[in-house]
Design a protein that fits this description.
alpha/beta, Rossmann fold, Rna Polymerase Sigma Factor, Chain: A, 2 domains, eight-stranded mixed sheet, 10 helices, 8 strands
Length: about 350
């Protein structure tokens, strides 16, 4: 049984929610996710030659609405031209996850990698749609990391890649962020040492303070709309309520964050841990974007990846929003991303 869809938020596109039954998903660890179900939505129509597909990858704890601000008439991804497939990653509560697996619930779920997310999406594209080549793969944050992994794992599968706020190899900083986020959840009395007995309300409160209030933005961004401490506390309570309305499961976060922090394109088969060699093998036209300061995925990691990819273009997002620069939080950021990504994909 799949989890309920989180409530639609402002700017989300209400598209039909689809699920592909993809059978057992063999993981690179040798373990298996049984009865894997891939959740996704589509926008537009696949052309007769199956040549206009674009894959949208989601972020850590995100879903297929993550890049809705880039989808629409005249936007970077235009359904009148593109067939857009927005895929839910493993363990986001919509695709098969610790929270909804019947045979492997909770902490019985096997550990997986970002490459396994890519493999599940590859299976969706080839088996469900018969797609053998993409116009582009695009994502932000963990979605951008999946996009880069796509170009290494399947170098001839896509014409272009757009990765916003990505890391080719998870930095020590980001690993400490996810470790701290897990510690926030596990500090709740609901943590038994082998899963959560009930929803960890206090844990989610601490998690919200760390991930949504602090590390997803910058001090300058918060100063724009929080004039004093009293307003900051009121905003935090609103943010906490909003995050819990999305009902992301704590077990799902543990598993996705483990995949997040273990990521390195260099550990793809054939590269023997050489991240730079893996990036140098990329053949797709690549655009990487990041803001000047990102307190979750360091902007330096995005710049370093772009420097190692042949012919890659790096564009700085002129935003003080930090990790939230690759969202529609600020209308000017969304407009900038639509313009530059649209120009890149149509060139």
């Amino acid at each position: 049984m799949m989890n309920r869809h989180p409530p639609l938020a402002q700017g989300h596109i209400d598209a039909e929610h689809r699920v592909a039954e993809l059978g057992d998903l063999e993981l690179e660890s040798g373990e298996t996710i049984f009865d894997y179900r891939q959740s996704y939505v589509t926008h537009g129509q696949l052309d007769r030659e199956k040549s206009n597909a674009v894959l949208v990858c989601s972020s850590l704890s995100g879903n297929h609405h993550r890049l809705d601000f880039l989808i629409g008439p005249g936007k970077a991804l235009d359904p009148s031209r593109d067939f857009i497939i927005a895929a839910d990653p493993v363990a986001n509560g919509l695709s098969t996850s610790p929270s909804n697996s019947e045979r492997q619930p909770g902490m019985r779920f096997p550990r997986f990698a970002i490459r396994d997310m890519v493999q599940s999406q590859h299976r969706l594209l080839t088996r469900q749609f018969g797609i053998t080549r993409l116009q582009a793969v695009i994502g932000a944050s963990m979605g951008g990391m999946q996009a880069l992994q796509w170009t290494v794992s399947h170098p001839l599968f896509m014409r272009a890649c757009v990765a916003m706020t990505p890391m080719a190899k998870t930095s020590a900083w980001a690993a400490l962020v996810t470790e701290t986020a897990r510690s926030c959840l596990m500090a709740d009395p609901a943590w038994t040492g082998d899963g959560f007995s009930v929803e960890p309300e206090r844990g989610w409160r601490a998690y919200t303070g760390l991930m949504a209030a602090l590390l997803s933005r910058t001090p300058a961004a918060l100063a724009q709309f929080l004039p004093d401490c009293a307003e900051a506390h009121l905003w935090f309570e609103k943010l906490r309520a909003q995050n819990r309305m999305n009902a992301f499961d704590a077990h799902d976060y543990l598993y996705q964050s483990w995949a997040y922090e273990a990521h390195d394109v260099g550990t793809t088969a054939g590269f023997e841990g050489d991240t730079e060699a893996a990036l140098a093998s990329i053949k797709a036209r690549t655009l990487i974007l990041a803001p000047p300061l990102d307190l979750f995925n360091p902007a330096e990691a995005a710049r370093a990846a772009a420097a190692r990819i042949p012919g890659a273009q790096f564009i700085e997002i002129p935003s003080m929003q930090g990790h939230q620069a690759a969202t529609s939080t600020k209308a000017e950021d969304a407009a900038f991303l639509n313009r530059v990504i649209g120009q890149f994909l149509n060139s």
